[in-house]
Amino acid sequence: MKIQVNGVEITPNMAKILNKWYPSKHIDDAYPYLYSKWLSKIQDYLTRNLVDMGDNDENLPVVKECLNMTIVMKDDFDILIPIKDQQEGGVA
Q: Residue 34 above 80 pLDDT?
């Protein structure tokens, strides 16, 4: 059985993940919150390495690409984090 919410199809497998991600009403138990914390730590580490790299470092494009992907994922996960007293998910 598939459900659509605002044109987005929610499959049974997606529903299982959402149930896993939000086991209770406590924000600390939500997987997107945990993932966002991990991604923040990774983003911080990559940014610090980027600052320490020389402009001619051959790894620079890879570090920039990883940093960009991390920022995009973290921002998307932040949107999924439920905020108390807020009708929709998202970070204020």
A: yes
